[in-house]
Write a structure and sequence with these properties.
Rossmann fold
Length: 279
């Protein structure tokens, strides 16, 4: 029997942010989606970790999923996303959480770790986008941004047609379909905000993120190069690298990686934090 999902939303800085909760208890695990997709991308992972004793919270960042979608690019800077996540942790009533995400979600998690490390037990960073990803990301997202700007009418028509397609019941597929159905003016604002601001903490800041971090990556992805993950693990004082077989493994054949993530999370809650030890 599949456990029920608790859907909700909260107000932050004049906007509504949507979320879903799986499981209950004091062990809170917050996981973030990638660029333009939404929380349903991570629903199966959430269910699996909730079944192992975690309270898993999936947040739709502003401009994504069921959350509000303002059309000004400044709403989509990485530091703005990080502020939303800290507000969400406060809303959940959690002193500390395990925080992570895929792609954009991994970068936002790093930003939170750099600015509010006291709120974190640890990090799970799936396919971070760092220095070696810049050329490939520019090749993919710059043309998309131009299409949304100069071919907005056909892009809007295509988005409306995709929105009419029936959903499959597969979280990853349905999340991808909703991303393709996003209105072009929203896509343009999100991409402009993400691409014009800093995409991750500096290397110096990363070296100061002294919380346990599990970094998941694979070797066949230009936008999420394995070298970025390797470098990140070297930069983080407590980084551990976990190699995936492909970018789809955690969504289509998740047992191995889910087991590794669950074991990592178990270990984080099994020992007191440095702050608790001092107390």
């Amino acid at each position: 029997m599949v456990a029920a999902i608790e859907l909700g939303s909260f107000e932050y800085d004049g906007s509504r942010l949507a979320y879903e909760l799986h499981g209950d208890g004091d062990r809170v695990f917050v996981y973030l989606h990638g660029l333009l997709v939404d929380s349903e991308m991570n629903r199966e992972l959430a269910r699996s970790l909730a079944a192992r004793g975690n309270r898993v919270a999936l947040l739709d960042l502003l401009g994504h999923g069921r959350s509000d979608k303002p059309l000004h690019a400044s709403a989509y800077r990485m530091d703005a996303f990080a502020d939303e996540v800290v507000a969400f942790i406060d809303y959940l009533g959690a002193d500390q959480v395990v925080l992570g995400g895929i792609s954009l979600g991994a970068n936002v998690s790093l930003e939170v770790a750099a600015t509010a490390p006291e709120r974190l037990r640890g990090l799970v960073l799936e396919m971070p986008v760092l220095e070696w990803a810049v050329p490939a990301a520019a090749m993919v997202f710059t043309p998309l941004l131009l299409i949304m700007h100069y071919a907005s009418r056909p892009a809007a028509l295509l988005a409306r047609l995709i929105d009419l397609l029936p959903r499959t019941g597969n979280g990853a597929v349905d999340s991808s379909l909703r991303a393709l159905a996003t209105p072009p003016e929203v896509v343009k604002a999100v991409l402009h905000g993400v691409l014009t601001g800093p995409v991750a903490p500096t290397v110096e800041d990363r070296r100061g993120i002294d919380v346990p971090a599990l970094v998941i990556a694979h070797t066949r992805d230009l936008i999420h190069p394995f070298s970025d993950a390797e470098n990140l693990v070297e930069q983080l004082p407590q980084g551990t690298l976990l190699e995936a077989h492909s970018m789809l493994e955690l969504r289509l054949a998740p047992d191995r990686l889910t087991g590794e993530i669950a074991g990592f999370v178990d270990g984080l809650w099994a020992k007191p934090t440095a702050r608790a030890s001092i107390a």
